[in-house]
Every structure is written in C-alpha cells, then in structure tokens.
Amino acid sequence: MKFTDGYWLMREGVHASYATEVAETRVEDGRLTLYAPVRHVERRGHTLNSPLLTVECWSPADGVIGVRSSHHTGGVDRGPHFALHTDPDHEPVISRDGSTVELTSGALSVRMDTDAPWRLDFRADGRPLTSAGGRGTGFVTTAAGEHFSLGQLALDVGELVYGLGERFTPFVKNGQSVDIWQADGGTASEQAYKNVPFHLTNRGYGVFVNHPGRVSYEIGSESVGQVQFSVPGQSVEYFVIHGPTPKEIIDRYTALTGRPALPPAWSLGLWLSTSFTTSYDEETVNRFVSGMAERDIPLGVFHFDCFWMRQYQWCDFTWDPEVFPDPEGMLRRLKERDLRISLWINPYIAQKSPLFEEAREQGFLVRRPNGDVWQWDLWQAGMGLVDFTHPGAREWYADKLRGLTRQGVDCFKTDFGERVPTDVVWHDGSDPERMHNYYTQLYNETVFQVLTEERGENEGVLFARSATAGGQQFPVHWGGDCESTFGAMAESLRGGLSLGLSGFGFWSHDIGGFEGTPTPAVFKRWAQFGLLSSHSRLHGSKSYRVPWDYDEEAVAVTRDFTRLKHRLMPYLYEASRQAARRGTPVMRAMVLEFPDDPTCHPLDRQYMLGGDLLVAPVFTEDGTVEYYLPEGTWTHVLTGERVRGPVWRRETYGFDSLPLFARPGSVVPFGANTAGAVHDWVEGVTLRVHAPADGVRVTTPVPAPDGSTAAVFRTRRDGDVLTVEAEGATGTWHVLLAGAGVRAEGMRTKDGVLLTASPGTAVLSTRLG
C-alpha cells in the first residue's frame, strides 16, 4: 500500500508518524526495548500530545533477530498466530558502547546509536545488511480512520528481492506492489493462491513479517531504495534472518516456521487424473489405466476429481451411487493394479448435501455476526464454510476423511481454501482479517493429520492449492489453474521457483495446463517439464490429459520421461530428504545454487532439480531454447555432450530431449528399475560421475523408500585414478564415467565408460586416461 505522494508529500488524508530518536532504552530478559518519540524532543513540553512508539528487539534463534514496533498496545489479541519454533536455550548478547546499544545473535546484530536520529542497522560478520532509517519504523492513519503499522528496510545497489509465496508475476520482485492476500486468481494475474510474508535478497538475509493477515509490500515501488511492508493495526513484527547463503536463509526460516514433511516415495511417480468437468465412470477410469499399461507408461497414482461426488452436493464425501455403484470394489481393483488413489475435496459444504444441516445444527459452519450461517452460491449453491477453529468441526471433518481412507483412498487433493470471507464470526473469536489467509493452514493441517494417522509417518501427502507461511509442513502443493499455453507453462515455473524461495520444498503443476486443450507441442514440452519436477500430475479442466489424445510422439515422450524419473528416484528422494531436513526445495532457482554468479540471480526459465541437475524447459513451438551454464564442465545427461561454462547457449531440441545437464564434479545415482517409483534403489544402482575434480571427495547417499539411508558411496579422484568406496551396497552396482573423451578400463557406452562392481565389492578403482 502506498502512502506517500512522491518524495515530499503524503497522499490526501494520510498522516504518517515515524520513530525519530530514542528517548529511553531498557534491557531485560534478553530483550532490548527502545522507546521512540515521533518528533524531536527538545524540551519537556514536547513529550506531551504526541505518540511514543515501543520498539522491541530480541532473538528467537541463532542468526535471527525479531523487531516489534507498537503504537497502542491495549487492544485484544484475537489471533490467529503463526506457530513459531524458537530455541529456548538461545540467548542473544546485548552490549553498550557509549551511546550505541547492540543486540547480537550469532553473526547477526542490530545496532542503534541512541544519540543519533533513528536508525536500526542490521549487520553480519562486520558488514551492513540493511537498515530501518528515518521512515523505517512507524504508523500511518487515513482520513477513513484506518491505522497501519509499517516497516521499511533499505535496499543496496544491485540488491534483488525474491519470494513472497507462489507469485506468477516477474521472478525478481523489485518494482512490484504485492499484497499478501489469498485469492483464486489463476496463474496469469498478480493474485496468488499461496501468499507468504517472507522475502529474501541476494545480499545474505531474508525478512519474515509475522502477520497472518494482509501484508502490503512496496518493493522499490514507492521509495525506490526501500522494501516497505505495512499491516492493519497497532503493531508490526518482523524477523531479519541471516544466511549468508540463500540456502542458509531458508534453513533458518523453515526452522522457525516449520520443516516440510517428507512425502512418501510413491508420490513422486506419475499421477493421472479424470480431469475436472469431463465425463467419467469406472469404465473410463479402467480405459485410462489400461491405456497407460498397454503403452508401457508406468502409472503410480490415479486421481478422481470433483465429480466423484453428486453434483450440487460438494463436499459431502459420498461417491455418486449412479456413477460409482461399488466404490470399495473399484478401489480394490485399482489397488490390485499397484495404484494409489487420490480424491478431490474442498472445505465447503453445499446446502443440498445432508451434511449441511448436520454441520449447521452443531455449529460447525462459519457464521455471520447476526448468527446466520455464512452462505453464497459461488462455486456450490448455498454452500457454507467449515469452521476449522472449532475443535468439534475439525474432528467432524476429519472423521469423514477417515471413512474414505478406510475405503482405500491414499491421499487428498485439498482444493480451494482461498475464498474466505471477512464479514464473519469465528468459533474461537479469531480476527476475520487475520483468519482470511490463515484458514488454509488449519484446513490442510486437518487433512494431513488424518493421512499421517491413518497411513503412518512419512505416508501423508496432499495435493494442495492454497497455503501461507508454515504451509510447507504439509506437502505437496500445485500451481493452480493455468492456461494450456507455453506462456502459462513459463508463468507456472516462475510461481514454483518463487514458492521454493519461500520455504516450500515440494511443488507440482498440471501437465498440459488446466484451462483449454494443449496443442501436441505444448503437451509434450509440458510432459518433459512435469516429469522433471518434484511431483508429476496429468490433469485438465474440460479435456482429458491421456497422452494418446495428442499423438503417438506424446505417448513416447511421456513414457520415456516417466522412466527417466523412475531411474532418478534415488537422487530425487535424497533431494526430498534435504528438503525435509533443511527446507531446501527440490526444484531450486539458479540463485539458490549459484549465489556468487550474478548471471544466475534473475534466471527464471531454468532451474536446478536437486543440487546437481540443471533443467531448461522448452517454451517454444519450434524447440528453440536459451539457457545458461555456470562455470565448469557440464555434461548433458541424455547425450553425454560436455560443455564448458560459463556460457549462454541457444539451441533447438526435438521432443525426445531438452537441456538437462549434470553439474561439474557431481555424482548422480541412477536406479536400475524404470517400472515404478518405489523399488530397491541400491540394487544395480549406477553412479554417474561427471568431470570429477582432482582431490575432491564426493559423498553420495542412496536412500531407501522408507526415508532411511540404504547405502553411501564416496568418490574421489587422485590424479588419473578414480576410487569409489561403497558402504551398505551388498548387490551389484556400477560406475559410469560420463561424457565424451573419457578413457578408462570398462565397457564403453554412448554416455561414457561403465564399470561394474560384483556383489559385496567395497572399493572400485580405475585409471583415467
């Protein structure tokens, strides 16, 4: 929200009050409190008839400093609040040096000269990060009587801002006005399904605004050298989070707001959907499943979208008996084909459903201030909204889901959660403005807990559309309703990369696009992109997404890239474990892996899949693609071509390939089985070694599908000798020295030289060149 009219003036009816100096300082219980008048106090009379801001600084964890600026503090705290995970044993250091007071947490500190004009300086390892200067701490009132609290942090020259959730606008957020406010806006607008009040920059820090309601950002868009954030109300609280690398920033941020759960290994396989408004029954489902099998396209999950239920009755958790007369038998038959089952749900109850009256009588639906149930006809006729602040409503909703899991359902697509009214009363008295964004957290948490309880640890997985800060704990999230075009494919990737830089480890999208029907070229390119994402789903709106509806080449592309993903499972699941441990996303913006390469900072049409594979999807009809390779010798995974970076390349690819490069020095494990996502990834594993650096040791864990470590390989090159040590590998394993021009003893392939270790071999050594 903009408050100023240029540099000198305020907008009509707007009055701003900013911290001007420090009147008093207090240190108590590891907390630094600064009392800041909003005018220069020259004499006692100036302390009258003027606001005094209370600014508190503290540290919840190493490398994180919180700041809370408050005007009036007598209001009732109605919640909700983000659940934060603080370190109870962490104690910051507070020191004084003359007029300067400083709070230090790890390498991060905030400093204030109490004799100087107001300025909070944030520093790390002796260098400045950012500062809240003359307009950096304060509040604003409007002619309508609105009160907003704001913070403003300086941007350095060349500093770029990322994150703020899944946003489809330009990847670098400089120059944008962003409202953190849940909306069902598709992927082609400035609105977002997943709004997260957290951003990070390429200067070694991030900022989390601890407000679950509307947060309005001006990112170099009002004051061009500042990031401003404002919230309605009397106070604003934010955390400055030090890195210095982007990975370390996300690590600390997700430690504070919650780590992503590790999704089950089977969820990384290919999902096939009925699509949305298409006609389907068990015969249709069987035709799809059989069609995939006949064409040797491995399928892992089958998804039933909305119309598995009776029309006008969503969401009543009951199969349409006319279309699915024997749901238990149908699910059993699908499971006999080694498939998992996903069902669509939403948090709305249509008036025609018998559950509406059941929920109304028990007070489980959100109500208006006069006591009426809140209802409208948008989406479902007369629908109400489940009040997840009511413990009874959460248990009631959860129990409906348990009935479905016991029929054989394995996971749920938790659609919607954004259209949440503010003219309502919540059971627990929550502030409607704060609950608008936060509702999705309660919704997805309720569903995720049911799946974890019913299926076991590391078996819970959603396919969720809406989220806010902390929502990363309940994967997976998908990109929402996009068009079936190359442009929409690119905007989806921008959204996914932004979400990854907002702490979300797992992300997916509708292969082929949702709205409309893709051309064969769009479908094939999107299939490549989708099967090189953390999760992969074929889904559309009014048309099916079975590949043979497009052409036979689409069948081949889907089959080949599904098999490739299955071979990559030991690598991808290790990347998944990294997401669960540290918050590092599986799909990574280039800046995340190459923060010291300025060329990588704005890139949004390519990404790293895990830490070692670079993917550049093709967004053109003729197969032309431009991409950048950072420094070192990169190896094309599909052709074995070696390319020396840093370099920009412009090439044309057929539908059987795309730029997919292994990082210099990487060791990427490929499984032996292409038939499914879940198998013994160690048995027959091939370690693909790419341009190993002399004297560097690379450790490659290979996980088991249950999330444990099955084996560990250690690769080292010493001069012209390459040695691989194996721990836990009892069967046959292989080493592929990838790339053109590799010379070693072993079987030559089009990709390089393959060496095979017999069962039980602990050390394999070969001479290069």
UniProtKB/TrEMBL annotation:
It holds the Pfam family Gal_mutarotas_2. It comes from the Bacteria. Residues 260-574 form the Glycoside hydrolase family 31 TIM barrel domain. Residues 583-668 form the Glycosyl hydrolase family 31 C-terminal domain. Residues 56-217 form the Glycoside hydrolase family 31 N-terminal domain. It is an enzyme of class 3 (hydrolase). Its EC number is 3.2.1.177. The keyword Heme does not apply. InterPro entries: Alpha-glycosidase_related (IPR050985), Gal_mutarotase_sf_dom (IPR011013), GH (IPR017853), Glyco_hydro_31_C (IPR048395), Glyco_hydro_31_N_dom (IPR025887), Glyco_hydro_31_TIM (IPR000322), Glyco_hydro_b (IPR013780). Keywords: Glycosidase, Hydrolase. GO terms for molecular function: alpha-D-xyloside xylohydrolase. Belongs to the glycosyl hydrolase 31 family. This is Alpha-xylosidase. It comes from Streptomyces niveus (Streptomyces spheroides). The gene is yicI.
